[in-house]
Amino acid sequence: GLSYDEFISALAQVPAGDVVLLHGCCHNPTGVDLEPGQWAEVASLAAEKGWIGFLDFAYQGFGDSVDGDRSSVDAFASAGSDFFVASSFSKNFGLYNERTGAITVVSPSRQEATVAKSHLDITVRVCYSNPPAHGGLIVKTVLSNEELEKNWRSELEGMCSRIKTMRSALVDGLAKRGIDEDFAYIKQQRGMFSFSGLSDETVAWLKTHKSIYVVGGGRINVAGLTTGNIDYVCDSIAEGLKG
Questions:
Q1: Residue 243: is its pLDDT beyond 80?
Q2: 4-143 topology per CATH
């Protein structure tokens, strides 16, 4: 989990004007998120100390729902300070190869927002000038049509629910196999990814002996688990842990 007191203590030391990068929801790679009340405290601290929050919002909809995952954005908006939101539609619209997203600048000052937009215009011009339009048009089409947006939200909620189901299946499956380790914390994590707690030795063993590929450090993509492979994965992890 998150050592919240140490986290807040560190943020309290950030100088005014600095930018702090925060995952708005479904933290990658840990899957550990702040609660709404904690986000409110973080946002208030940003306003008090004068540092600027930059919310990486790449996984909206994979934690609870499209609206349920916006606690971070709502908290910073309510605090009344300057902040950025970097949205990505690669995951929740399945547009990986289009690199479609948005940068949103929020400021209580219209003048400061205008200045920030001017700087962004220059940056965009230097970096890519005119991006491909296809992905953006897809997102615009869906979000501009009530029926299409309803279908999109429903499908996204279905994926979110499936990921939660697979988290539970992994934890319950490992527990049933009589291992000593307690993986219950995986159920509390949110989004596509999880720090599983598997050691590098176990990760290497799974790759060599079971053809199961896990990132070093034990990060797993929960979305890669299915009803068709969960038993094999649980059997393999249990075997690896028991030695």
A1: no
A2: Aspartate Aminotransferase; domain 2 (3.40.640)
Q: What is the mean pLDDT of the chain?
A: 95
* Alpha helices in 80-145, H assignment, sequence order: 110-127, 134-143
pTM of the predicted model, to two decimals?
0.90
**DSSP 8-state symbol, 63:** S
Instruction: Look at residue 121 and give its three-state secondary structure.
Output: helix
Domain 159-242, CATH homologous superfamily name and number: Aspartate Aminotransferase, domain 1 (3.90.1150.10)
Beta carbons of 238 and 212 less than 8 angstroms apart: no
Q: What is the DSSP letter of 14?
A: P
Place of tokens 């999880």: 194
**pLDDT (tens digit per residue) in 158-208:** 999 999 999 999 999 999 999 999 999 999 999 999 999 999 999 999 999
Q: Where are the domains of the chain?
A: 4-143, 159-242
Burial environment of residue 1 by CB neighbours within 10 A (0 to 12, 13 to 18, 19 or more): exposed
* DSSP strand pairing (83-88 vs 52-57): parallel
